Amino acid sequence: MTEAPPTHAMTMGPGEVVVMVSDGDVLTLTNKRVRYNLVARGRSKLVSMTLDAVSSCSIMSVSRPGLLILGALMLLAGLMAPILGGRGDARSVAVVLFTAGVGFLVGYLLLRFKALKISSDGGDVILTVSRGMDRRSLVEFVDALEFEKAKYCGRSNPVRLESEPGS
């Protein structure tokens, strides 16, 4: 996450300033609202929420451990096939199993992602998949959002939270 103005055009209201921008300029936090603006591959989506309407934020990590287990089992079977088979066919079976195992492991690594979900009182949801951002950047964004919401809603002495250690 960066603390620079977004590259896409966003009309600012009186007294509104950009606080933080996500990698890729998809998510923008100002001192008055949070805006999701995605334009990619022939599709677009824009969701904007005032800070007083934000009701919750969550960070989710999604992976498919079944691919990891299947890949490891196929690699193991590919390594064991020539030992147990002993014939020429066992070697070709080993190559197929080993290649499939590597494929499942690569699939596991490519399909992992983190997502940030921001919900509003009115039912709108900002859900952004963050393949390039690490957990620490997402936590920093949530911390900044909570701090700005506290200021915006007039809470006295909002406390800026420190990011989780080691996240």
Gist?
The chain has 167 residues and is α+β, with helices and mostly antiparallel strands. Helices cover 38% and strands 28% of the residues. Among the domains are: 59 residues, no CATH class; 47 residues.
Can you walk me through this structure?
This protein has 167 residues and is of the alpha+beta class. Among the domains are: 18-55 and 132-152, no CATH class; 65-111. Helices cover 38% and strands 28% of the residues. Strands 1-2-3-4 form a four-stranded antiparallel β-sheet, covered by helices on one side. A three-stranded antiparallel β-sheet has the order 5-6-7, covered by helices on one side. Helix 1 (65-85) runs antiparallel to helix 2. The radius of gyration is 23 Å and the shape is elongated.
Rounded radius of gyration (Å)? 23 Å
- Unreliable stretches covering 5 or more consecutive residues: 2-7
Number of helices, counting only DSSP H or I runs of 4 residues or more: 3
- Summarize the helix and strand pattern as letters: EEEEEHHEEH
Shape descriptor: elongated
Q: Could you give the distance between the termini?
A: 14 Å
Mean pLDDT figure: 82
Class by SSE composition? alpha+beta
What is the helix fraction of residues, given as a range?
25-40%
Key words describing this protein structure:
167 residues; alpha+beta; four-stranded antiparallel β-sheet; elongated
